[in-house]
Amino acid sequence: MDRLEGLEQTTTLNNGVKMPKLGLGVWKTDNKSAKESVKTAIKKGYHLIDTAKQYGNETGVGEGIKEALAETGMNRKDLFITTKLFNGDQGYESTINALEGTLKRLDLTYLDLYLVHWPVDGKYIDTWKAMEELYRQGKIRAIGVSNFDNDRLQDLLNHADIVPAVNQMETNPINQEKGILEFNNHAGIQLEAWSPLGGGEALSNPEVNKIAEKHNKSAAQVILRWDWQRGFVTIPKSSHEARIIQNSDIFDFELSEAEMDAINQLDKGKRSLWYENFAWHGGEYVDEVDHWDDSPKNYKD
């Protein structure tokens, strides 16, 4: 399978919607860089783009989408666009209202996937009820969650009419979330990996690099292939054209069972972010949109 064929491959979500298995993420990217990355990725064959209101770059992502469609002749339906509900917008009415601001910034009429970015305690049940209503209205093709551990996800399922289609988690060789993966699989929820490369520790791991050398591939390509063979949807971030292409050049080799198992053994359960880090749990991360110098101040929905 060549690179472009691989980027066409999809997984079928629990509501029948087909979602590309490999896409582009834009966390910690300003609007100008997000615009260029998105435009480049689409022109190089990507169909899945993932952003969030909290990233402060929905406007840039929307501009990149618009320009790429114009330059390639592709249609909006050829793309799968994901964004996430801002934590400060959680609650029933505020969730209903927040979608219009997101669609305006992205310059879109609908979303393919809308995720609850984090399970804000005391609000995520009402938030999910609003997500279900937006889904019924046809403004979103699929709804899901992000960063939900098993206890919170089970609580959500106890109150939900619609099972989330996706749970997007920090998942990589050093943080494999095996228990969450097992729970998601049992519930029919697709796991999507954010921070799939795991930073320097995973990329510099001797075992990963030994496997990469054998296949004449980079450590990043080996990790993304490991994701692929495990059935994850994955969204590596890059602002560089060469890396965007390289990250999708993973379809001309296959990891053996022994190589897959070797990477499976690297799990340390080492998360970079979790609930206790955030301000609403008394931690260091404040619940606010990341504004960039090039960001229009249009986040007051």
Overall pLDDT confidence? 95
**Order of strands in the sheet with most strands:** 3-4-5-6-7-8-9-10
Largest sheet: 8 strands, parallel
Could you give me the name of the CATH homologous superfamily of the domain at 10-198 and 230-238? NADP-dependent oxidoreductase domain
Number-wise, the strands total 10
Q: Name the shape in a single word.
A: globular
Residue runs with pLDDT of under 50 for 5 or more positions = none
Contiguous helical run count: 12
Q: Cα-atom Rg, whole angstroms?
A: 18 Å
Oligomer: single chain
What is the level-2 CATH architecture name of the domain at 10-198 and 230-238? Answer: Alpha-Beta Barrel
Name of the CATH first level of the domain at 10-198 and 230-238: Alpha Beta
Which topology of the domain at 10-198 and 230-238 does CATH recognise? TIM Barrel
Measured distance between first and last alpha carbons: 44 Å
Helix % is 40-55%
Strand residue percentage: 5-15%
- SSE pattern, N- to C-terminal: HEEEHEHEHEHEHEHEHHHEHH
Briefly note the structural class of the backbone.
alpha/beta
Keywords: NADP, Oxidoreductase
Domain NADP-dependent oxidoreductase: 22-267
Protein name: 2,5-didehydrogluconate reductase
GO molecular function: oxidoreductase activity, acting on the CH-OH group of donors, NAD or NADP as acceptor
Question: What does this entry look like structurally?
Answer:
- Pfam families: Aldo_ket_red.
- This is 2,5-didehydrogluconate reductase.
- Belongs to the aldo/keto reductase family.
- One of its GO terms (molecular function) is oxidoreductase activity, acting on the CH-OH group of donors, NAD or NADP as acceptor.
- The active site is at 55 (proton donor).
- There is one protein chain.
- The protein has 301 residues and is α/β, with parallel strands linked by helices.
- The chain has a domain at 10-198 and 230-238: NADP-dependent oxidoreductase domain (TIM Barrel), CATH 3.20.20.
- Helices cover 41% and strands 13% of the residues.
- It has twelve helices and ten strands.
- The chain has an eight-stranded parallel β-sheet with strand order 3-4-5-6-7-8-9-10. It has a two-stranded antiparallel sheet with strand order 1-2.
- A hairpin with a 5-residue loop joins β1 (10-12) and β2.
- The longest helix has 15 residues, at 58-72.
- The protein is globular and about 55 Å long.
- The termini are far apart.
- The mean pLDDT is 95.
